[in-house]
Design goal:
- 0% of the residues lie in helices and 62% in strands.
- β7 and β8 form a beta hairpin.
- The chain is built from no helices and nine strands.
Length: 105
């Protein structure tokens, strides 16, 4: 199973639900990715996919400076799991892979 593609994420945080888009690509056997959200684009680090489990870290500055770690399970075109940043409580993460190009409004 491949995790390549563009994923629409929804992250339920204590300050409300946040939307993000994660793009995952495999190049030469190496998985790379970038996240888009809150007006910024950040590279994913420590990206790993093993069986159904996908994990990564990223550094964000909006709405506040955080370094969340994501741990999700991929099932076809959906994913579920958590995001944890420091001492903050874990946030529920859900996502769907885009199956066709979407137009931005």
């Amino acid at each position: 199973m491949s995790v390549e593609g563009t994923w629409n994420l929804s992250i339920s945080t204590p300050i409300g639900t946040m939307k993000a888009v994660v793009e995952l690509r495999e190049q030469g056997g190496v998985l790379t990715g970038v996240a888009h959200g809150a007006g910024e684009e950040v590279p994913l680090s420590d990206l790993a996919f093993d069986g159904e489990r996908l994990t990564w870290r990223q550094a964000i500055t909006k709405p506040m400076r955080l370094n969340p770690a994501f741990d999700v399970t991929v099932d076809g075109d959906t994913l579920r799991g958590t995001s944890k940043a420091g001492r903050l409580p874990a946030s529920k993460v859900t996502g769907e892979r885009r199956t066709a190009p979407e137009r931005q409004a």
